[in-house]
Design a protein that fits this description.
The protein is 77% helix and 1% strand.
């Protein structure tokens, strides 16, 4: 079946080069400010007198704060303005990120990480809502993937720089300098971003007409469905399954992200700069995998298997790496590097599902619910690895637990609905709710 791009005449597609790069860099900064403590964790632990379990707790407490504005963020983006809401959050998380560099005690660091989580919590659902206003279904997984490629790119770009800063100064300089970046990008965000095509003076008339027609047709699909109670929509089985998938995915993913640098240092005695470069290796593969998987998902108009297979491969590679880490450390690290690409490549198709299966008025809040509860796995993952590291002095059991979590996520994703092509138009389809 032909893609929607085959059914319309050639036209400028300015939204791809105008919106995606600005949103990409915005969330790259957010992810850097969230995860830059991974390389600094050994130094933070020493200076603030934290044992491995306490360090894992401090790294993961961010995700308890990350619950706060997820559902309100999706709601405000849908009913008010994604652009303005994200602009407010840019200022808030910048203040918190800089504050992390000035803490003097373990408790102060714990509190600042919690507040940083609150400040960043509404950005993800608000940006997904914004993209859904600019990219129709047949383009949405690719748009999501191009934007979400900021996650591995943040690690690729920041890890060598962060390693260099740590090698020349200290973790306080690292957190403070990278915490200033949101204030710089705020000006670009306000200048370049618009909430809807009708608000943008830079878009061509042809592109505006195409978007209004395509997106208007999608809204009409839900117009005859009646006014289902808001809470009932949020508690649909499909939404709850997505919560479970994302929770287990993040348990594994963030445990991997926060502890891989320490595992590198523990396994091989290397410099901070070398650790930064090596830490970036898995994420070089990730960006490529994200785009290829999303592109294939859009072409096939299929979401479920484009989520299941990457997660299953990742869980298998982490398990293999965990089993080898005590016997063949170099081979184990190679397997763990390869594992880094899988989980992120599922993001584009996964996050296309809510905007394609739920009424627009609640899709943003539903994505907030999935992201809020799902990201609590970001607390559990680092804590689990720290717990096993403290008791065994190694990473085999901790990374083994992460692999089981990722395999569980893949298994649960099998419950997501199959693709169902409707007869209304050649480019209209939904995913059957489980």
């Amino acid at each position: 079946m032909s893609d929607i791009s085959d059914l319309r005449p050639p036209m400028p597609q300015q939204r791809w080069v105008r919106l995606i790069p600005v949103a990409f860099i915005m969330y790259t900064i957010a992810y850097i400010d969230r995860t830059n403590i991974s390389l600094a964790l050994p130094y933070l632990s020493r200076d603030l007198h934290m044992d491995p379990a306490q360090a894992g707790d401090a790294a993961g407490i961010f995700f308890w704060g990350y619950i706060a504005l997820q559902i309100p963020g999706g709601y405000l983006a849908s009913h008010w303005s994604a652009k303005r809401f994200v602009a407010i959050l840019l200022v808030a998380w910048g203040l918190c990120a800089v504050g992390c560099g000035f803490v003097q005690t373990r408790r102060e660091f714990w509190v600042m990480r919690l507040l940083l989580g609150v400040a960043e919590s509404g950005v993800w659902p608000a940006t997904l809502v914004l993209l859904s206003h600019w990219f129709p279904r047949a383009e949405r997984a690719r748009a999501n993937a191009f934007w979400m490629a900021c996650l591995p790119v943040a690690v690729i770009c920041s890890s060598p720089i962060s390693g260099w800063i740590l090698g020349h100064w200290n973790w306080r300089v690292l957190l403070t300098t990278e915490g200033v970046l949101p204030f710089v990008w705020l000006v670009i965000w306000l200048w370049q971003v618009n909430d809807h095509p009708r608000h943008a003076s830079w878009i061509s008339p042809e592109e505006r007409e195409y978007l209004e027609t395509a997106l208007g047709g999608e809204r009409e699909e839900f117009s005859g469905a009646g006014h289902e109670p808001y809470l009932r929509v949020l508690l649909r089985p499909q939404v709850l399954v997505m919560v479970g998938v994302y929770f287990l995915l993040n348990t594994s993913n963030y445990g991997y992200l926060f502890w891989l640098p320490t595992a590198l240092e523990h396994t091989k005695k290397i410099s901070d700069l070398t650790a930064g470069y090596l830490y970036a290796v898995p994420y070089l593969l990730t960006g490529i995998a994200m785009v290829l998987n999303a592109r294939h998902s859009d072409r096939q108009r299929e979401r479920r298997w484009h989520v299941v297979l990457p997660l299953a491969c990742t869980g298998t590679l982490i398990l293999a790496g965990a089993l080898q880490i005590g016997h063949a450390p170099t081979f184990a690290l190679a397997l763990l590097f390869l594992a880094g690409a899988g989980a992120y490549s599922a993001h584009g198709p996964f996050w296309a599902i809510p905007t394609e299966t739920l009424p627009p008025r609640v899709a943003g809040a539903a994505m907030g619910l999935v992201n809020a509860i799902g990201n609590l796995g970001g607390y559990l993952g680092p804590l689990t690895v720290g717990f096993f590291f403290k008791r065994t002095g190694g990473f085999a059991l901790g990374f083994g637990a992460l692999s089981l979590s990722m395999l569980g996520s893949a298994s649960l994703a099998l419950l997501l609905g199959r693709r169902k092509v409707t007869t209304r138009s050649a480019t209209s389809y939904t995913l059957t709710a489980c």
